[in-house]
Each structure stands twice: as C-alpha cells, then as structure tokens.
Amino acid sequence: MSRLHLFDALRSHLKTRGISYSELAFGINVAEGTVKRIFTKNDCSTERLDEIADYLGIHLADLFQKNPPPKHLIDQLSPEQEAKLVHNKKLLMLAVCVMDFWPFKDMLKYLTIPRQECVELLQELERMGFIELNDKLNYRLLLTRNFSWLNNGPITQFVKSMSYDYFDHPFDAPGEFLKIVNVRISPYVRNLLKGKIEEVLQQYIDQVSLDAHLPLDERPPLSICVAARSWVPEFLRELMQMDEDESNISPHRVLTRLSRKKRGLPD
C-alpha cells in the first residue's frame, strides 16, 4: 500500500466512525495541529502510526479494508440507562469525565475511585454504548454532537433536585454570569430565539473537544443551565387578573389576530 493510500484509508476509518481530528489528537495525546499536519503531509513515524491504529482499535492490516464498519453513535440514553447513572454516582462521575475528555491517568490522579473499579466502570459505560474502550484504556465517545439528556428524564430530575446548590452562588467569577429576564413576546419569536440560544450552547459543547488537549487544570469545570418557560411568580399572579393564559396562545392564533386587526375586525 502506498503512503497516499495508507492515509486515505485512515481518513476513511475516521470519517466512517465519526472521529474528528480533535478527538484523535486527544486519544493519542498530541495537539490537534499535529494531527492536521500528519494528514496534510500524509506522513508520520511508524510509532505514531501504531498509536493511531491502537486508538482506532485496529491492526494495520485493517487499513486495507475499503469499507470499515461504522460505529453506532447515540444522541440520547434510554430512561433505564439514565436511571442507572443516577443510582450509581461513581458511574455517573465516570460518564461526566469521559464527556469532558479526561485521560485515564487523570481519573486515577484526581478521583477517589480505585484503579480496578475505575476500569470496571469504564467497561460498564462501554456496554451501555457510551464509549469505545481499547486494551490500553484509551476511549472515544460514542455520542453524537447533539447528544442531550432526556427532557424531564432521570438525569434532569436529579439535577433539578440540586438547584439550590447551583444557584447559591454569586456568579461573579470570570466567565460566569446569571441573568433573569421577564418578557412578553409572540410564540413565533420565542421559537426563533430558542434556536439562537441553542446555537450558543452548542458552541460551548463543541469547545470541549477542541480544548481536550489542554491539561485538566487548565480547563476548569463550567456548568451551564439554560431554561425558558411561561412563568409568573405566585406573588405577582395574586396582583393580576387576566381572562386567559396568554402564554398558551398558539402561533396560528397570533397570526389570525394580526390578520383580523389589519382588516379592522375584532379579535
């Protein structure tokens, strides 16, 4: 196999299995720029090539396969799987660690979980389809870019139970903020702005893999809580009198009202 064909085969494995350059860089413990140079120049040492093959969990002979088997990625766990995480705090801790790309050596260094138990927990995450683990205890996430916890599922309910602990904080450290706004806007605009907020949230999520090459102490934890709902505090509701809950007006009804208003007709 020529050098060009060799690296084309590697690219095929990466693409088919949904592995980005930043994920590969994390897996072989190099900067993302190093991986980009390898594939731009189609060149690297034999040792580096072995590291890439080990991370992919393949033998060099596997590179001759034109169609490597794709790995199934998940965008949500089942309610039963989330419940398993909630009921096993150590397993949940390891799930959080792999989502934040902790190297195995840092798990041993910074967690109070013994090595063998840590290995067994990672193996359990692999059985759940959460990660792919190789013999050297390198792993890769099997989660899609849009992975999320179930809406109102076990994890969300668990986090809600800790809301006081989350909000009992001044939110004044660098990169921290807390803003609460109360507005009255149409359902159409609600959905439009919701999409924009989700785009910003995705930028936070995407940055995790981009910063994975940094030492753990250079990427401190950040928990982001984003919520929007129709809500008026009870003490304000006592001072209001309204014939209907305007928050539940459908977009169709809003458009109907506007159309009737333009024609000079009553609602």
What this model shows, in words?
- The protein has 267 residues and is mainly α.
- It has 3 domains: 62 residues, Orthogonal Bundle (434 Repressor (Amino-terminal Domain)); 63 residues, Arc Repressor Mutant, subunit A (Orthogonal Bundle); 106 residues, no CATH class.
- It has 13 helices and 2 strands, in the order H-H-H-H-H-H-H-H-E-E-H-H-H-H-H.
- The chain has a two-stranded antiparallel sheet.
- A hairpin with a 5-residue loop joins strand 1 and strand 2.
- Helix 2 packs across helix 3, helix 5 packs across helix 6 and helix 6 packs across helix 8.
- It starts with a helix and ends in a 5-residue tail after the last helix.
- The relative contact order is 0.10.
